[in-house]
Amino acid sequence: ELKVEQNPLFLSMQEGKNYTIYCNYSTTSDRLYWYRQDPGKSLESLFVLLSNGAVKQEGRLMASLDTKARLSTLHITAAVHDLSATYFCAVDIKLDSNYQLIWGAGTKLIIKP
Amino acid sequence: DVKVTQSSRYLVKRTGEKVFLECVQDMDHENMFWYRQDPGLGLRLIYFSYDVKMKEKGDIPEGYSVSREKKERFSLILESASTNQTSMYLCAASPLAGGGETQYFGPGTRLLVL
């Protein structure tokens, strides 16, 4: 069964702290995406990770991919209130001749000032 | 920047009505997608299209159909709306390539079926 699991699903943290969101997936893939969604808004692409060992950073967010462990992490450094959102990971899977994204359930992140 | 627009932000329909959700993208991307988003379930793919008049079922196509008569427009049709189709509907577009391409999302349509 194709599954993408995010952990935790809900996270409340104080500003200034560090934390990591985990994304595990059940089948082989070399491509993983992280998206952000603000309440009532659509999804915004954050990172595309295209190979084993890929690491990308943007501001206080850093994403990494370990294709052997089928694991991606999204690390938040010194969190600020503006990072409060729901974060989704998605894995690119080839089904027949087409690629399809399989999505995690999302991690709702609340950062308290 | 790819721009993906959806015809309505909010819709209220009655059970049994036929519902059309329209999505338009302005960057000439081959792939277009319709998802529904429900709390705790992430995004679930309803249908996608990789070319004009081409469509593929996603994970949850039952109760839905789609139409892609022009490259820039992808319509989702609820033939006879039911209350369990109350949800947020998101349209996305991406270049064809061979995968590895970011999907760009529209603002979403929140549909309430009474």
Specify the overall morphology of chain A.
globular
Task: Count all strands of chain B and give the number.
Answer: 11
CATH architect. name of chain B: Sandwich
Category from helices, strands and their pairing of chain A: mainly beta
CATH class descriptor of chain A: Mainly Beta
Report the average pLDDT across residues of chain A: 91
- Write the CATH homologous superfamily of chain B: Immunoglobulins
Uncertain regions of chain B: pLDDT < 50 for 5+ in a row?
none
Instruction: Output the radius of gyration of chain A.
Output: 14 Å
Count of domain modules of chain A = 1
Percent of residues of chain A in helical segments? under 10%
Main sheet properties of chain A = 6 strands, mixed
What proportion of the residues of chain A form beta strands (DSSP E)? Answer: over 45%
Strand content of chain B is over 45%
Count of helical stretches of chain A: 0
Oligomer: heterodimer
Low-confidence stretches of chain A: none
SSE class of chain B: mainly beta
Question: Would you mind describing this structure in some detail?
Answer:
- The complex is a heterodimer of chains A (113) and B (114).
- With 113 residues, chain A is mostly beta strands.
- Chain A has no helices and eleven strands.
- Chain A has one domain: Immunoglobulins (Immunoglobulin-like).
- In chain A, strands 2, 4, 5, 9, 10 and 11 form a six-stranded mixed β-sheet that branches. Chain A has a five-stranded antiparallel β-sheet with strand order 1-3-8-7-6, with no helix packed on it.
- Chain B has one domain: Immunoglobulin-like (Sandwich), CATH 2.60.40.
- Chain B is 0% helix and 56% strand.
- Chain B contains no helices and eleven strands.
- The chains are: A mainly beta (113), B mainly beta (114).
- Chains A and B meet through strand 5, strand 9 and strand 10 of A and strand 5 and strand 10 of B.
